[in-house]
Specification:
UDP-n-acetylglucosamine1-carboxyvinyl-transferase, Chain, binds NADP nicotinamide-adenine-dinucleotide phosphate, Rossmann fold, single chain, 759 residues, globular, six-stranded parallel β-sheet, alpha/beta, 6-phosphogluconate dehydrogenase C-terminal fold
Length: 759
């Protein structure tokens, strides 16, 4: 039960907005007494008859007498006169607030007519409404789960703002604050302009010769687009008049866009046309995802982002897997496309000449961040639709300056590779990321690029050189030779991509093999790359030619199934079109050393990348000491390999894998905790682990509870453990699985894992 926030509330203008607040305050028992002031006796009587108010007054001074809160909900044009009438009658300390759709004009009126009382005036705007108006339309639920924007000024008493904020929150609204001029500009673009267009379109067509015909044949699109032309003309008249400047600049901006669209149609420029529509599609998808509070790659303001991150963390923590013990895996499983290759397919496709058709693109957040960045630089990209993307390449020198910073979300690959590529452009770019990416070091990429002549500044953040990263364009680059101090495919790729724009040769030597997808894909796009042992070399000034690419299935995602099919007796799986790049196949080599039955069938080349269909049959595994040379080639697959080790005969020992401690979680410790929870004997080292396996034919795990710490690979690995467990395994915090491996739960269940997702 609420205790009243106010003794007496007075509503002036008891229509849809005022009446709905009265109804909500009454329903929630937030005021002891509610009265209204208004020009027509009829409205006030109806308000009383409907039970919205206790009393009504045509004399506004009498209405506000003794009120602690006055809500003004007349049309905006009537507010100045309203303030003038009530000012002398307001009780000391009374709060005045309003619901007008325009804020600058209302604040000017309040300053002029409320005098000293203006410090207790809290300008507000509920973003809720209907096409109906008047007191009859009042609805107690109108504000529930809607936003209310407050625009307090410097002179507004914070205590008054707080009281108004509490009131709106108590009737179910979400309250935001912003400056009045910002409010008027944003609303001009997002609300006033669409209303202007709807009114104007209907009127324009209605004035045509035979408008009856036009409307008779009007399709659903016309009805959808013009719904808001049924809104109240008087209210909208006021809004256009009172927010004149912001409406005019929004209309001008739109006129420019319309002229560009018209020109594209007139000249038959299909790239420009597709560009507008694909960008609009993706912008709308981002907008819907943002409103639905789902995670998606979006450039949003920091405050919104923080609240969304908190939101998705909460959602993440609430998704869990429960896997029943036993079963086996069989059939055919097509795992999603490789993330590294998906990123590069967009980058090289954009820089190529012609249209690159991509299939099997991984529609995860990271690769989508890359895709959005290239759209922001003027590249037309169709899709993704079910993994298909068409990239309309603009050539090495065709990228355009983005209108604002490029937002990379959580994707380190996108940011680091783009630093190299952007160093060679004629324009400046700023790269930003989410809270976690903003803590990651970028200097090890920036340093060699500066040696090439690039101008790059990172944010110091304790000497780590973190994002935002500013890349200044127009700097001539020269080729260099670089010896990588630490093996890193991202640093190597960034240098090679900058090398495309450099004068002369660029070469990189790596201390240990790293993923070579960039070199291979450049070759696939017809750009010569020489490889000589640990060194990759290219010359600047060439060109890339568009091609067709089928992104191989991700071997890292396949690893869970390779392990699952191996450990459960009687299983057999076929994993088609998996990338078997030798820099990634450590997991196959290690499993084979343990005795796994894995065969590669139909080996072939896909856009420079070797692929194969992988057949895996259940086999007795034995413990091994993992050769350290294989560790970098299987670094992401160790969580799955630990599960295999727990099922093998004898001990498996891993050393030289300290990098596992700085992945999405401390994978050595988090896996060890999970193994302990499922009764698997093990010993943890700084750089690895020893796991004592159960051996063939025996259960390897008890049932139990696993904390995945939001690490997708931990979650998927322990899901496979259930195949050899004696009881159900419950895995918490599994939402991130969907971003790296969309559809994992469904695919695993179809193959035979008894997995249920709880949300
Ligand atoms: P409404 O249903 O038409 O109600 C308007 C109220 O103001 C009625 O009580 C009306 O009295 C009174 N009024 C009209 N002209 C007046 C005048 N010249 N002097 C004194 N009182 C007058 O309109 P509404 O939709 O509630 O809109 C009210 C305010 O909320 C406007 O400022 C609007 O910008 C804002 N707003 C509207 C929406 C929306 O979607 N509708 C959304 C957010 C904010 P009578 O009953 O005597 O006609």
């Amino acid at each position: 039960m609420n205790s009243p926030l106010f003794h007496r509330v007075c509503i002036i203008g008891l229509g849809l907005i005022g009446g709905s607040l009265a109804a909500a305050l009454r329903e929630q028992k937030l005021a002891t007494e509610i009265v209204a002031g208004g020009r027509s006796a009829r409205t006030l009587e109806r308000g009383q008859a409907l039970g919205l108010i206790d009393a009504g007054y045509q004399d506004l001074a009498a209405a506000v007498d003794g009120a602690d809160l006055v809500f003004v909900a007349t049309p905006v044009s009537a507010m100045a006169a309203t303030f003038a009438s009530i000012a002398p009658a307001l009780k000391r300390g009374a709060i005045v607030t309003d619901g007008g759709s325009v804020k600058g004009a209302v604040i000017r009126a309040a300053r002029q007519h409320l005098g000293a009382r203006v410090s207790r005036f809290v300008p507000g705007h509920p973003i809720a409404g209907k096409e109906k108006s008047g007191v009859e339309a009042a609805d107690a639920s109108l504000y529930r789960q809607h936003r209310v924007i407050l625009t307090p000024t410097d002179e507004t008493d914070p205590a008054a703002t707080l009281a108004v904020r509490r009131m709106w929150t108590a009737v179910g609204a979400e309250v935001l604050s912003m400056r009045a001029d910002q409010h008027d500009q944003v609303l001009a673009e997002t609300s006033h302009l669409p209303h202007l267009l709807a009114f104007s379109l209907v009127d324009t067509l209605a004035r045509q010769g035979d408008s009856t015909d036009i409307f008779r044949y009007a399709a659903g699109g016309f009805r959808d687009f013009t719904r808001i032309a049924s809104s109240d003309p008087v209210m909208w008249h006021d809004i256009f008049m009172e927010n004149r400047d912001a409406v005019l600049s929004a209309a001008d901006l739109f006129a420019e866009g319309l002229a560009r669209f018209r020109e594209a149609v007139a000249s038959g420029n299909s790239d420009a046309l597709l560009g507008v529509m694909t960008r609009a599609n993706s912008a709308r998808a981002r907008f819907l995802a943002m409103n639905a509070r789902t995670s998606y790659t979006h450039a949003i303001d920091a405050a919104d982002e923080q609240s969304m991150n908190a939101e998705s963390r909460r959602e993440g923590a609430s998704v869990s897997f429960t896997v029943q013990p036993g079963g086996q895996l069989s059939g055919q499983v097509r795992v999603p496309g490789d993330k590294s290759i998906s990123h590069r397919s967009i980058m090289l496709g954009a820089l190529a000449e012609g249209i690159t058709e991509v299939e099997g693109f991984l529609e995860g957040e990271d690769a989508l961040a890359t895709l959005q960045a290239f759209r922001d630089m003027g590249v037309v990209i169709e899709g993704p639709h079910a993994g298909r993307v068409r990239v309309h390449g603009v050539g090495l020198h065709g990228l355009q300056a983005p209108a604002r910073s490029l937002y990379m979300g959580n994707s380190g690959t996108s940011m680091r590779l783009l630093m190299g590529l952007l160093a060679g452009q004629a324009f400046d770019t700023e790269l930003t990321g989410d809270a976690s990416l903003s803590k990651r070091p970028m200097e090890r990429v920036a340093r060699p690029l500066r040696d090439m002549g690039a101008s790059i500044s990172t944010t110091d953040a304790g000497g780590k050189g973190t994002p935002p990263v500013l890349v200044r364009g127009g700097k001539p680059l020269k080729g260099i030779h670089y010896d990588l101090p630490v093996a890193s495919a991202q640093v190597k790729s960034a240098i090679l991509l900058a090398g495309l724009y450099a004068d002369g040769d660029t070469s990189v030597t790596e201390p240990a093999p790293t993923r070579d997808h960039t070199e291979r894909m450049l070759t696939g796009f017809g750009y010569p790359v020489q490889r000589d042992g640990a060194t990759a070399r290219l010359s600047g000034g060439g060109r890339l030619t568009a091609c067709q690419l089928e992104v191989p299935a991700d071997i890292s995602s396949s690893a869970f199934f390779l392990v699952g099919a191996s450990i459960a007796e009687g299983g057999e799986l076929l994993l088609p079109h998996v990338g078997i790049n030798p820099t990634r196949t450590g997991v196959i080599d290690i499993l084979r050393l343990m005795g796994a039955d894995i065969t590669l069938e139909n080996e072939r080349d896909a856009g420079g990348e070797p692929v194969a269909d992988i057949r895996v049959k259940s086999a007795p595994l034995k413990g091994i000491t993992i050769p350290e040379a294989l560790v970098p080639l299987a670094i992401d697959e160790f969580p799955a390999l630990f599960v295999a080790a727990a099922c093998a005969e004898g001990d498996t020992v891993l050393h030289g894998a300290e990098e596992l401690r700085v992945k999405e979680s401390d994978r050595i410790q988090v896996m060890a905790d999970g193994l302990a929870a499922l009764g698997v004997p093990h010993e943890v080292y700084d750089d690895g682990i020893r796991i004592q396996g159960a051996g063939q034919g025996k259960p390897a795990f008890t049932g139990g509870e696993i904390e995945s710490h939001g690490d997708h690979r931990i979650a998927m690995s322990f899901a496979m453990a259930a195949l050899r467990a004696t009881g159900p395994i419950h895995i918490r915090d599994c939402a991130n699985v969907a971003t790296s491996f969309p559809g994992f739960a469904e695919l695993a269940a179809r193959a035979g894992l008894q997995l249920a997702v709880e949300d």
